[in-house]
Amino acid sequence: MTKPERWKAYLPMLVVAVFVAIPFILSEATSILLCEVFCLCLFAVSINFLLGYGGMIPFGHGAFYGVGAYSCALMLKKAGLPFGFAIITAPIITAILGLVIGFFCTRLAGLKFALLSLAFGQIVWAIIYKWYSFTGGDDGIIDIPLPMFLYNTTYSYYFIFLVVGIALFVLWRITNSTFGWTLESIRENAERVYFIGTNARNYQISAFVISTFFSGLAGALFVLVSHNAFPEYAFWTKGGEGIIMVVLGGMFSFLGPVIGSFVLLFLHTFILSQTEYWPFFLGAMLLVIMLFAPDGIVGVIGRKWAFEKEKAN
Amino acid sequence: MSTTILLQQLVSGISLGMLLFIVSSGLSLVFGVTRIINFAHGSFYMVAAFFAWTVANSLNYWVALIFVPLVVAMAGGVIEMVLFRRIYRAEHLVQLLLTYALVFIIGDITKVIWGLLPKSTSTPEILSGGIMVLGVVIPKYRIFLFVLGIGIMIGVSSFLGKTRIGSYIRAASEDAEMAGALGIKVPRVFTLVFMIGVWLAAVGGVVSTPIITIILGVDMDIIIQCFIVVIIGGMGSMRGAFLGALCIGILDAFGYLVLPRFVIVFIYALMAVVLIVRPRGFLGKSAE
Questions:
Q1: Is B281 a member of any domain?
Q2: Which of A62, A183, A269, A292 shows a CA-CA span of 20 to 30 A to B259?
Q3: How many helices (H) and strands (E) does chain B have?
Q4: Residue A213: pLDDT above 90?
């Protein structure tokens, strides 16, 4: 093994060690911010599963984040169900909804797919927003009861870190399986995949269900950070935020959205501490990325590395 | 009594539909020719509404109606030449997100200039008050909107259908490459179409000021409604936008009588059903 490769092999362990150490080193506020980043990171990776690997633009994915959060919140607050049950069932409920919506969305491609997912997402949002007796409407659900240990920031941090870590590992394994490769080939040319006897649409529906499962899990975990649930979680701009994280980091790699979500949330916190005009910076940044580096941070770094290697040879 | 209410709702539905038509026809026209779904379309609407508030307060409404859309259309033309021209061949996602980025930027610039407070203008004197029709008082301003909507429908359709420049536009939207080979300056045609689209959004923004409160965030509201209209009517079709806008306006008005809280659900559901059953919309050309 050459030197840089050995360095690469230790990198994941180093990253994990850093995150484990953070609650002891940095302030409580940073830990809470990081919890939020973990949730959005999982959300962004689950979006990229459809966007980068499946070639589908899910503009209404905020709805699934919201449904995950609301099913978890309602089970804990209204039904008084045990926490373990709620956190496991919430993503399953989201995935069942994802199956129904995905069934219809995958009949279309390109812009029409994006618009239909937007329409479904907005239906879900509108129901959450208007059904006062069930969801609390625009008052949201506040003071959601959690098990005692989750009121401790450090424990809650480790819990979310662990669950998100496992979820990312599972998603990573899926993208590197035959399922993931088939999905990518469908993105490249659905017709050819169909000709070799693979039912492309079943793969797309399955991808949609997997993606919504993890979006729902991300939403449910976010309830542990915020202790509240609001209709905005399900609004289409939430999905838009996820897509921005994906393209910021780079949509053609697994780690891209992870990096994108960290960069975006820290920039958000930093710029808001300086000025109230965060959307302007966000817009300007997005504009530059779209014009000059549609493959995001990971793409730019990758190209730079390739260039240096070329030069070295 | 109940017929009075129904008639009143019908009138308000139609006039809302006309406003939606004016704005979404611009979106549809730009999509039909350049194949770009412009998220920032609603932002031009919002800027025009705020700008009209300033002009109407210092001068008057009619100056605003003539002057504001022209200025906003010019600004739109510059944005087209600087930004949009680079992405006509890019992927859908790049196009969507670039226009989405403009929404944030224009929104914040509007916030800097006009601030957070909601604004409203009064109806111009000639158009205030109402006319009795069949025992129902119809506000004159709603009749004005109706006439304006029909006028724009006829005006834009005959411009596209009967003039030389209109035929260039149709040629460029059918096959840009072939149109270019025949000597039509396609980039200029695209800029012109984009400016007409922005002009329509801005006209909608100006005429909305006496009936809708001008506030940050209307850009998002109107763009989603425009998406619904053009999906239902058929993307790129002028008559489709007219039909779609009327449907949404009337559905909205009557929905409030029946199930006021869930109107919005029905409207999104209509969009979803149209996309599932007939993805090209009522009057759209064959699916792409």
A1: no
A2: A62
A3: 11, 2
A4: yes
pLDDT of A75 reads 93
Which residues of chain A make contact with B107, given a CB cutoff of 8 A? 279, 283
- The mean predicted confidence, pLDDT, of chain A is 89
A214 Cβ contact list (under 8 Å, min separation 6): A42, A43, A45, A46, A49, A91, A167, A171
Distance in angstroms (rounded) separating the CA atoms of residues A101 and B245: 26
Number of residue pairs across A and B with CB atoms under 8 Å?
107
Residue A16 or B206, more confident? B206
Residue A158 structural domain: 33-312
> How close does chain A come to B225, measured CA to CA in Å?
11
B268 in A contact zone (CB under 8 Å): yes
Separation in Å, CA of B143 to nearest CA in chain A: 32
Q: Is A3 among the domain residues?
A: no
Distance CA B137, CA A127 (A): 35
Q: Do residues A302 and B116 make contact, with C-beta atoms less than 8 angstroms apart?
A: no
Residues of A in contact with B109 (CB under 8 A): 280
Give the one of B92, B97, B108 whose C-beta lies nearest to A247's C-beta.
B97
CATH of the domain at A118: 1.10.3470
**B251 lies in a domain?**
no
In the prediction, which pLDDT does A140 show?
Answer: 86
Q: How many residues does chain A have?
A: 313
Per-residue pLDDT band at B217 (split at 50, 70, 90): confident
| Domain assignment of residue A72, yes or no | yes
Q: pLDDT tier at B1 (50, 70, 90 boundaries)? A: low
Judging contacts by C-beta atoms under 8 Å, the chain B residues touching residue A279 are 104-105, 107-108
The answer as to whether A27 is a domain residue is no
Provide the shortest C-alpha distance from residue B199 to chain A (in Å). 23
Closest-CA distance, B279 to chain A, in angstroms, reads 7
Number of structural domains chain A divides into: 1
What would the pLDDT profile of A256-307 be if each residue is shown by its tens digit?
Answer: 999 999 999 989 989 988 888 899 999 999 999 998 888 888 888 888 888 7
Q: How far off is chain B from A247, nearest CA to CA, in Å? A: 9
Q: Do B276 and A107 touch (CB under 8 A)?
A: yes
Among A residues 95-124, those touching chain B with beta carbons less than 8 Å apart = 104, 107-108, 110-112, 114-116, 118-120, 122-123
CA distances to A75, A254, B185 from A126, rounded to whole Å, are 20, 32, 45
Residue B283 lies in a domain: no
Most confident range (mean pLDDT) of A200-204, A211-215, B178-182 is A211-215
Task: Say what the pLDDT of residue A1 is.
Answer: 47
Return the structure tokens found at B169.
């536009």
Q: How many domains does chain B have?
A: 1
**Cα–Cα dist B64/B66, whole Å:** 6
B218 touches B49 (CB < 8 A): yes
Residues from chain A that touch B287, judged by Cβ atoms under 8 A, are 112
Range of the domain at B76: 22-216
Whether A121 shows a pLDDT value over 70: the answer reads yes
B167 assigned to some structural domain: yes
Residue in chain A closest to B111 (alpha carbons) equals A277
List CB contacts (< 8 A) between A50 and chain B.
Answer: none
